[in-house]
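Check my protein:
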Amino acid sequence: MVDADLSGYFDSIPHHELMKSVSRRISDGRILRPIKMWLETPVEERDEKGNRHRTTRNKDEGRGSVQGSPISPLLSNIYMRRFVKGWKTGGHERRLDARIVNYADDFVICCRGTAEEAMDVMRGMMSKLKLTVNEAKTRLRRLPDETFDFLGYTLGRNFEPRTGRSYLGARPSREKVSRLRDELSEMTGRNTTWMEVDEQIGRINHKLRGWSNYFCIGTRRQAYKSITVHVRHRVRQWLGAKYRVKGRGKSRLTNAHLHGELGLRRLS
């Protein structure tokens, strides 16, 4: 497995080559012109002191797509397709038995014993596309002995808890689980005790629902259990701080009360 990473992809997309790709799909100059203008528009940013700074780097260097609008990921996908399509039309997929799986600029190359050659070919193609490979984060992963993270999931060897049987699969990465725990801790801080209980539980459930809707495939038992234990603890602490009740409140605020009476979402 080639676990690849690009350095500053959105900031590196060359305007001339990108517009050539766009013009293959759009022939109306009245549409192409504002796209070109948008790529070159100045960007206003604020520094740590709150002072505004205007930059024309994209226009001066002829590269970069400003993030934060619907058109930016669309244009990035159009340019990234040059690499994906070139990999197939160039015969690398068949010759190396190596297939690309990508989402925007995040991609991996699945190989059968040809990963090193596939990595060399990928570097050469990225150079022609005027993109930079992040060598510090690009590496080879050999499954099932190793794992790799892709789109928030850790892929590699898992074990069936009841039988101990090993299998290749996906599970939520530790980083994503840890980040959600941190977000839940921030949401239930003492500075939010002014909120009504129903409102707070609704916010938490909204966060849990969105997270679990994405992380709903593969092995997720341990991740769900870790998050459930954490959110129960945080809600008990929040309720104790809100009503100024000492102690953990585990005997009074049972799991059944949290999920039944208060309606706290249960990940299962």
Notes: The chain has a mean pLDDT of 92.
